[in-house]
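Supplementary Note 3. Input sequence used for the single-chain structure prediction.
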Amino acid sequence: MLRQALIMVKKGKNNCIIGLLCCCSTLPCLRIVLVSRQTQGNAPFLLWFLCLLCLFLRLLIQNGMKEVAIQGIKGCFHEVAAQKYFGAQPFTTVECLSFNLLFGTFKCSPNYYGMVAIENSLAGTILPNYALLRNSELSIIGEVYLRIEHNLLALEGQQIEEIREVYSHPMAIAQCYDFFDQYPHIRLIESADTALSAREIGNNGKKGIGAIAGKLAAQYYNLAVMAAGIESNKQNFTRFWVVQHNRALPRNPEQVPNKASVCFHAAHHRGELAAILTLLAQYGMNLTKIQSLPLPGKPWEYFFHIDLTFSDYHAYRQAIEAIGTRVNSLRILGEYPEGEKTEAG
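The predicted structure, written as discrete structure tokens, is reproduced below.
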């Protein structure tokens, strides 16, 4: 594309400008200009307009449309969580097959976000994601609590009695054993992802095969919901972090934070952790979660990850300053509005 622009520079001022526009624009726009170059010495006004419109649309997409990195593919619960968080705001998904890939390829852009599962009310905490966040240049800017509803999906026109095998993520399978006890003829097979299992069936037209996944996956891959809400425990929720690059964080957040995630390495002394937690209580902090993780290179010493909620931001900052004088290291992983929790019906 750049080579074509240099050729047009020699043809005259008008072509030079249009050619440079094309280098910043899209390929269809470039083709239009090349055709005009062969037929006329100067591009008509319409072609000027098309080039400018093409450039404008590209800039609009790049600067206005949100991108959300998800672990999994379209239709997975990470995308459902993103829909809940962003509401009516449009976004495109960036599919990442692992959390390592999500963190490792993260863009520094105000319109680029990540959706990261951190804990499930039944299965517990996804511990590796704490280290991934702590060692990254990302911060938590929000959180989502999502009710997880599993469904049995398959191609249209089949009965459950015709399904021989069902694929899904191991955690999803484990959460649906009670349902499948009714159908002992069905073989349960583990796969890498719920939505990926659904896509394999939809794209390949596999009859006699089912998947455990969300209803969004059924929509994307043209599958029928053979049975809805097949999870054994209806109080099944996953908490997701919404993350963004530190250098892309908004200077003036729209909402005042009332929750924070902090990690620290306390001195290895008797009673030190208790003293830190007492300090937090004295400043009115509400401790909603505490998680310890090994400190690499120092056996039997630990990082402590804590979540705090508060009503007074100034008191929270004073609490952080107070414990900062007692710990070996401290990092605020994010300050954000507390996510809305809902109960299952």
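The first strand starts at residue 66 and ends at 71. Residues 1-40 have pLDDT under 50 and may be disordered.
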